Amino acid sequence: MEVKQVAALPKQFAIMDLEMSDDVLTISAVSTQACPCCPLCGKPSARIHSRYRRKLADLPCGGRHVRLLVHVRKCFCDTPTCIRKIFVERLTPFVNSFARVTKRLFHIVQVIGLATGGRLGVRVTDRLGIQTSRHTILRRIMALPTEPVGQITELGIDDFAFKRGRTYGTLLIDLQSHQVLDILPDRKAETAAAWMKSHSEIRVVSRDRGGDYAAAAQTSAPQATQCADRFHLMTNLSKSLEGFLSRHLAAYRTRVDLESRATPLSIAQGKGPPKKNPKQAYESQAKREERLAQYQQVVALRKLGFSQTAIAAQVGVGHATVSRWLRHGTFPDHKSPQRRSRLDPHLNVVAERWEAGCHNIAQLHRELVAAGHTLTYRNVYRQLVRYLPQGRKKSGSASQLPRAPVLAREAVFVLLRRTEELEAKDREMLALLRSLHPEVDQAYELVQQFREMLRTRTGEQLNAWLEKVRVSQIRELQGFVAGVERDKKAVRAGLTLPTSNGMVEGKVNKLKLLKRMGYGRAGFPLLRQRVLHAL
Questions:
Q1: Who's near 337: CB < 8 A, 6+ residues apart?
Q2: What's the distance, Cα to Cα, between the start and end of the chain in Å?
Q3: Using CA atoms, how far apart are residues 368 and 387, in angstroms rounded to an integer?
Q4: Residue 179: its pLDDT value, please?
Q5: In what order do the strands lie in the sheet with 179-184?
Q6: Which domains does the chain have, with CATH numbers?
Q7: Is residue 285 classed as helix, strand or coil in its secondary structure?
Q8: DSSP secondary structure string for all residues of 476-496
Q9: Quick check: 234 and 454 in contact, CB under 8 A?
């Protein structure tokens, strides 16, 4: 195979010499064009003025730098009307005029710059055998032309943070072509309005619940239908629901504390079993059902005439277990062993002090030690927490009350999801939450109705749902209703149309990656170029 084919040089080049030195492959070539054409008038010329050698950088070959030495000609232009009398033959499209690199190397560096940035791009090109600098990579990126924005019918708009909580920008997306249209340096209504004013063909504007973009669309695109994003609607509802659940869970903690202080003695004396958390109770029940199924299988095989040894091998339990089950004749329930600790002989004393009002475990431990008992704080703490979960802290403030069965932000997800999507432990938690107060049960029904309305795109039911919430008198949901009323048309469109800001959120996520790859050093112009021409 010829070197020319391996190097993928154009047909108008003829290779004269090859030289390898210091990991640099030097290829000497000459242009074989019959009659170069004048770049101004386009007339060919056969009169040669002189020759010179152009030095060009090309793509690496086998990890080695490649240098092209191309011998080109200068010719006379014989056209009387042409102002150019002497011209140099062009090597386009392989090399641009006055360029010192080939066009393919130019594009490769440009692509690496778009994917990585300046400093990181240099580290990549060094490993690929391309000699360049971060300034060159940045120039290549900034040289990319911005394509004009065409016709837009569905516009998605959202903000992103340059510095969270301080400065923000705006991202504009064509929801039909999924292309980034533009990036604005702030999220002011005036800036967004000025951009939308030049596009009167917009018919749908998908946005979040912010008022700035709503005002911009109302001012500059009154013909467009504003569509509130469904994800943001559910976010607003979940925040209102979290405050509602926090109130009821706090009331639950207070109620449990009062009940526990009313009857601490019987628990402290060990009359009740140690409290299990829902996960332990669920695992215990699952193990019991598994053993019951094995017991039923053992009984069935015995009726069929199998020996105890064959039954043990078939069921997967021990021979002694099969013998014990058949001997008892009924399913033997396992009883939890009564654990004894070094604190058990002193539980009566602890219960008396508890009834007297001493709910501080550290104080109880100090009194027991002062009485001559060799008990560690860990022994006292673990035993009291086991039988007196309400006694691990004093009841002086709301933060020291017994823990609620679940955190409010965790309970929100249980109430927002459909029942058929919940696992067994989540269904138990849902039943517990709904039993806290009739308001919680009512709020759950309202939330499920809104979720179903959002899922089935039945926005025509919005008015009826808002009226139900008003009648419910749940004050946390009244704030959500007030927000919906202020943006009612956009909310109804969001619950009816298939348009959403999901694509915009994905583009914002990609923008964040590009922004962080700039190590905080890149300005807005470079970020805009990288986002508009992202791979």
A1: none
A2: 34
A3: 18
A4: 92
A5: 179-184, 167-174, 154-163, 204-207, 225-228
A6: 3-142 (no CATH), 154-229+500-532 (3.30.420.10), 231-252+406-494 (no CATH), 263-400 (no CATH)
A7: helix
A8: HHHHHHHHHHHTHHHHHHHTT
A9: yes
Distance CA 258, CA 395 (A): 9
CA atoms within 13 A on the CB side of 468: 14
- β-strand pairing of 48-61 with 179-184: unpaired
> CA-to-CA distance for 113 and 98, rounded, in angstroms?
22
Residue 408: its H or E element: helix 408-416
* Residues constituting the chain: 535
Q: DSSP letter string over 79-144?
A: -TT-S--EEEPP-TTTS-TT-SB-HHHHHHHHHHHHHH-HHHHHHHHHHHT----HHHHHHHHHTS
Q: 360-381: per-residue pLDDT in tens? A: 778 888 888 888 777 777 777 7
Give which of 203, 218, 249, 204 is closest to 433, Cα–Cα: 249
Q: Helices marked H in 487-523 — which ranges?
A: 488-494, 502-517
Chain-centroid distance of CA 245 in Å reads 25
Question: Would you state the pLDDT for residue 389?
Answer: 46
Q: Quick one: which of 88, 86, 94 has its CA closest to 72?
A: 88
pLDDT digits (tens, 9 = 90+) for 53-105: 999 999 888 778 889 999 999 999 989 999 999 999 998 889 998 899 999 99
Tokens of 65: 């730098």
68: Cα separation from own chain's centroid: 48
**Position 10: which residue type?**
P
pLDDT at 359: 74
- Is there a contact between 113 and 90 (Cβ–Cβ < 8 Å)? no
Cα distances (angstroms) measured from residue 134 to each of 101, 138, 382, 513, 517: 16, 6, 62, 19, 14
How many degrees, rounded to 5, is the angle at CA 258 between CA 256 and CA 264? 90
Residue 379, classified by CB atoms within 10 Å of its CB into exposed (0-12), middle (13-18) or buried (19+), is: middle
User: Cα–Cα distance between 534 and 529 in angstroms, integer?
Assistant: 8
What are the pLDDT digits (tens) for 485-499? 998 999 999 999 998
CA 435/CA 417 separation, integer angstroms:
18
Residue in 239, 178, 241, 243 with CA at minimum distance from that of residue 206 = 178
From CA 179, how far away is CA 490, in angstroms rounded? Answer: 23
Phi then psi dihedrals of residue 526, to 5 deg: -70, -40
Residue among 417, 418, 358, 425 at smallest CA distance from 393:
358
Low-confidence spans in the chain with pLDDT less than 50: 1, 262-274, 389-403
Closest CA to 42 of 111, 89, 102: 89
